[in-house]
Design goal:
2 copies of one chain form a homodimer. Chain A is of the alpha/beta class. Chain A is built from 15 helices and 18 strands. Chains A, B: It comes from Alicyclobacillus acidoterrestris (strain ATCC 49025 / DSM 3922 / CIP 106132 / NCIMB 13137 / GD3B).
């Protein structure tokens, strides 16, 4: 039982008065307006926080968690210089130990900033999954695979299959596994088909990068006479539920394909800006009825994992581009960062809300923060004013993982020491 | 004496190792690398914070502080609907008491998020200045004036003159006063000339809004056959040092005028996005050698006063627009938010740095925050990863005003209560 001074149940239900949430294990059983009527002497498991506002945990629909280790290792560089001269040489040195500690750092950063679910596509994922299991966060994980040659192709298939066997629905159901072909420019068409077949066999969705940069689209047109999205459809990828990250350089025809095939999009506004990729047409995606979530991308291209920033940027950036202040109103941005984001990464219909039956993934904000003063409009304050600094308590699957801004499940001193050690190894 | 684990002295001097700052009253006397060599038994006024990183206090070059009272009172609306139906009716009800408490709320929010200097153009400014004096923040204040008729014109001149007499260089020099003609569309040409004459007489600069929206520029062309910036030059405004806010819709000729006349610009990226005004050509402004600072604008159009967000947005937004990751690198964004911002609002050459002789306006960030891990590049981490949640201790003019994230100079419980009371009066 969690009693708070206000709550945003979902984008349509904003309660600016006391309310309590009744939990049943890892699920929200119901919410009731008012304060909890404690009956004399009866012991109840009640957390009473009148100076908090409850919101659903934020859902980060695209990222590469252990890239926290590469935060600030290369900035203000053209994409290919950044990748080839900074990121790839460092990634070559990443060990299983590094992936584990890098993911611990990411889980810490995400939990204390109000993210309770994230998606990941990276390497040595058993060690990422271990960090997820231990930190208490919820995650949709995939082995990132590329098909440069027969060895990498075969490795990708084997590792994906084995990772699925090891971790799908593990950690009390907090981990779900998808497949993770990196992109059409790193996975040849017949390999994408093969991966789609494996996804059907395992009955899991796919995460992939699509149409992130203009260059990628131009090259795809040159090589295949198709956009990356048209190519992905042609090879059968969209026969499987798919979450496509970025989709910055898309045609109307691309978006029509995605709408028709039910492809979800992870919109990463800050990463797309920082890498100079461009600005994805979010309003048009939503007009076409595409399910969109928000993502931070990895911390090497963002450079943090703060979903409040992505939510605010999704709400403001497209207003500026369109010169129209009515584009992406606060409720839509909130939905993208919570319930629609959860749909984008294949979680249940109620996920990302505080409705009865939803997973008990709950974030309590400090109602006494200047960002929540005064309260003309609670939803607006959360979307346009609040930040990571307002997150006080966090619950995932009914378990408290952050208290008073401090993580309960992560040994932060140890993470600091290990990350410092690994950084020295990387730059040696 | 403040000893820390690292410091950014200015955009060019980043010290990722222990360093101590020696203060002389309200001034930084010098900084030295290493830890402070305490001599046996000798008492020193030493604050020892090895787990902090020092940066200059951030400088917010445009805003309307007491608009915190209107935070969330109107969002996702076209500019004129927003102003006429939401903001103006509420502003009509603002009292001197409201201005005082709204400014206290703003000072609280700014100090705990690392802003030590801000600019203000609003109403009943004696009461704003009182809140500045008491809260310990530094401010460049102006009475916002409009010239709709003879009464408003005369009031504007009288109030500006009296406010200057009351507050210029007061609060131990933390307050400087400028004149604040609102905009060319609210102040007729001959009134702008009159204000420029008063500025010359008082020997103070001017703050004004210029070319914020496309409509404003179109109307100015229609009414005067000149852009707002060309008009401002013609009427003699730029004969006085001027800080122009926004400058979103500017021609090359406009920017050439500003460069030639030494006009400063306050770039407000988030407010310009949120109100649907557009995206100002920051890279071109800097190429032309114009001095630019960053601003939040008022909390009714942002909706917070967090300069870390503006610094990050200035660094990322223009990369995305230009599709060029090399535009506005981290050091430039840092400079805009600190030293160049200080020049933009007419403070001393050293202001916004931690160099010897600079004002002792210092922010200490939590070096143990996930945002500062690992430290591949301290400056990048501060610009691209840190946020208000990393601010721990803040000093203005050598006096500590925030400790461990909590303001020392502001009665936050009182502010909360007064702001809640005033909000009820406003919406009644």
């Amino acid at each position: 039982m969690i009693e708070v001074g206000g709550a945003i149940i979902d984008k349509d239900t904003v309660i600016a008065e006391p309310v309590y949430l009744v939990l049943d294990g890892d699920i929200i059983e119901r919410y009731e307006r008012g304060t909890y009527p404690c009956e004399g002497g009866e012991p109840v498991n009640l957390i009473r926080k009148p100076n908090r506002v409850a919101i659903p945990g934020l859902v980060n629909t695209h990222g590469h968690a252990a890239m926290t280790l590469l935060r600030g290792a290369g900035d203000d560089l053209p994409l290919m210089t950044w990748l080839n001269e900074r990121i790839f040489p460092l990634e070559d040195k990443l060990t299983e130990d590094a992936i584990y500690w890098g993911t611990q750092l990411a889980a810490w950063e995400m939990l204390v900033s109000g993210t309770t679910t994230y998606t990941d596509m990276y390497m040595m994922m058993d060690h990422a999954a271990k960090a997820v299991a231990e930190s208490g966060i919820r995650a949709v994980l995939s082995v990132g695979v590329v098909g440069f040659n027969d060895v990498s192709r075969e490795n990708g298939m084997q590792r994906s299959r084995s990772f699925h066997g090891n971790w799908h629905r593990q950690a009390s159901g907090r981990i779900t596994v998808t497949l993770g072909p990196h992109a059409p420019y790193t996975c040849p068409p017949d390999y994408l088909t093969e991966i789609a077949e494996l996804a059907k066999e395992l009955d899991v969705p796919i995460q992939i990068h699509l149409s992130e940069t203009q260059t990628e689209v131009v090259n795809s047109q040159g090589d295949h006479s198709l956009t990356p999205i048209a190519l992905a459809e042609k090879v059968g990828l969209f026969d499987v539920p798919t979450l496509a990250a970025h989709c910055v350089h898309v045609t109307d025809a691309d978006l029509d394909i995605m709408a028709r095939r039910g492809v979800r999009i992870a919109h990463n506004p800050q990463s797309n800006l920082k890498l100079g990729s461009g600005i994805a047409p979010l309003p048009k995606m939503l007009e076409k009825g595409i399910v969109v979530g928000l993502g931070t991308d990895g911390a090497a291209s963002n450079n943090n994992l703060d979903m409040f920033e992505e939510m605010r940027l999704a709400a403001t950036l497209h207003k500026g581009v369109a010169q129209d202040a009515e584009v992406i109103p606060a409720a839509v941005a909130f939905d993208l960062a919570t319930a629609m984001g959860a749909k984008a990464c294949f979680l249940g219909q109620l996920h990302g809300t505080l409705k009865p039956g939803a997973a008990a993934d709950i974030v309590l904000l400090d109602a006494a923060s200047p960002h929540l003063l005064p309260q003309h409009n609670l939803l607006s304050n959360v979307v346009y004013a609040c930040g990571a600094d307002d997150v006080r308590d966090v619950f995932v699957a009914g378990r408290q993982v952050v208290s008073g801004g401090e993580p309960l499940t992560i040994d932060v001193e140890r993470v600091r020491a290990e990350v410092a050690r690994i950084k020295e190894q990387l730059v040696k």
